[in-house]
Amino acid sequence: MTFIDKQLCYNSLKGGSIILNEYEVNINTCLISYDGTNSEIIEGDKTYYVSASPTTIISYNCEYYGSSLLGRLVGSKNMLKMGYKLPIIVEESKELIFMPTSSFEHKDCAWINIANIKDYQAKDNNVIVNFFGGQQRELPISFFSFESQFFRASKLLLTLKMRKKG
């Protein structure tokens, strides 16, 4: 039974789906995207809805795990020597690294846990992402931008692992 099943408050229903007030990211979280009203969260083979934007959920989780979104962004900037559309380490010991699909300031910015990306391919001007839990989503981001973000996030993970090694 997950944290969601045990602890979160339920707000209302959306087409038979429960809308949560909060969400704690975990190793099974694949994607946090925005549907115009709520965030859709893919966790393994399950889908949840949360009444907050994806960046608000990521920010809450950064604080939950002992930092802030701004602190995580500064850390990523220092580790990667880059300054925009930065992936972040939400939680270090579990190596939870999420990459944004656009500037985190945009409400429609989706956040993807790189550990759960099985593969991805271009479709017109979008990218189809397949996750290890069996779910798939088409995202409004070019293949080039997605791959660039994925490589940045992978570099962040490698840098984290190297620093943990000592």
Structural overview:
This protein has 166 residues and is of the alpha+beta class. The protein has one domain. The protein contains 4 helices and 11 strands; from the N terminus they run αβββββααββββββα. It has helices spanning 3-7, 54-64, 69-80, 143-165, and strands at 10-14, 17-20, 29-34, 39-43, 46-50, 88-91, 96-100, 111-113, 117-123, 126-131, 136-139. Strands 1-2-5-4-3-8-7-6 form an 8-stranded mixed β-sheet, with helices on both faces. The protein has a 3-stranded antiparallel β-sheet with strand order 9-10-11, with no helix packed on it. The radius of gyration is 15 Å and the shape is globular. The relative contact order is 0.15.
Overall, the morphology is: globular
Overall mean pLDDT stands at 90
Report the structural category: alpha+beta
Uncertain ranges: 1-11
Number of self-contained structural domains: 1
Question: What is the ordering of alpha helices and beta strands?
Answer: HEEEEEHHEEEEEEH
Largest sheet: 8 strands, mixed
Return Rg in Å. Answer: 15 Å
Distance between the termini: 36 Å
User: How many helix segments?
Assistant: 4
Could you tell me the number of beta strands? Answer: 11
| Helix fraction by DSSP (H/I, runs of at least 4) | 25-40%
Which oligomeric state applies? Answer: single chain
* Estimated share of beta-strand residues: 25-35%
Strand order across the biggest sheet? Answer: 1-2-5-4-3-8-7-6
